Amino acid sequence: MKILTIILEKKYIPLANYFSSATNAKIKLSFNEIEQIMGQQLPNAAYLNRSWWKKTKAPAKHFHAWMDAGYFVSEVETNRHVVFERIDASKGSHANNGKGDEDILLIRNAEHGDARSLAALMKTVEAESDFMLYGKDERIQSTQKVRKQIIEWRQSGHSTIFIAILNGEHVGFLTVVGNAAKRAAHRAEICIGVQADARRKGIATKLLQKGEEWAASKNISRLELTVVENDKPGRKLFEKAGYVSEGIRQDSMVINGKYYDEIYMAKFLD
Question: With contact defined as beta carbons under 8 Å apart, do 26 and 92 qualify?
């Protein structure tokens, strides 16, 4: 990841990380997508003045989020979208391989400003999956409830939630829920969800990797999960990532009136 040449305000760091991962010659983002990347709202000046996006001199610093990654703002449609282009277009993906734009994936810790989008994402994932704990429209996840959970987990130091942002849209999440008890402080339970149209892009694998890195930094050495026995894609994902079966929870889920077993799985981190 590119090292920033100047200290940015904290809220623009995710945006800088997003652009540092990009290779596209041109990137068009709506204001909403930019705020989803940041996890916070843009200042009023960004909505009211095109000049805010065109600034490239001190005392402003926000422009370093894209300029340090080699992009400049070529077009601004107030309150609608911003177009960023590579300063050296020859370095873009169009010029290199002719395959068109590449997906841009950013995974970061959830911020309280993500609450509304995260609640909607969880609702979508649960509606699309046959194997989540909650079914379609079964759980009411209010923005306020999700925001409170994000803040509480952040403050606890042993739990967190990661969001996967693909091309400016929230498409996946990973929760890591640890323990306050000293005897269980070395272990945490994980849960992962990726919406259907973003699957088979390696997002779940990268979410797991991010979660494991975070857990290791918190001295958590054991990660646990359960997966429905008939969830073959889920089992394959976890087995490939190094999780092993430790037992069966018999008839633990009732899906469409039928009982299913769950498999206990765990991974020990180095």
Answer: yes
| Chain centre distance of CA 30 | 18
Residue 254 CB neighbours (<10 A): 9
**82 forms bridges with which residues in the sheet?**
29, 76
| Residues 93, 7 contacting (CB under 8 angstroms) | no
Instruction: Give the pairing type, strands 222-228 and 258-268.
Output: antiparallel
Query: What domain range includes position 90?
Result: 10-101
Which pTM does this prediction carry? 0.89
Pair 42, 92 in one domain: yes
| Residue-wise pLDDT tens digits, 123-162 | 999 999 999 999 999 988 899 999 999 999 999 999 999 9
Q: Which two tokens stand for residue 90?
A: 């020859």
Q: 187-194 and 169-177 as β-strands: parallel, antiparallel, unpaired?
A: antiparallel
Query: Do 95 and 113 share a domain, yes or no?
Result: no
Instruction: Give the up-direction half-sphere exposure of residue 168: CA atoms within 13 A in the CB hemisphere.
Output: 13
The residues with which 81 forms a beta bridge, in sequence order, are 30, 77
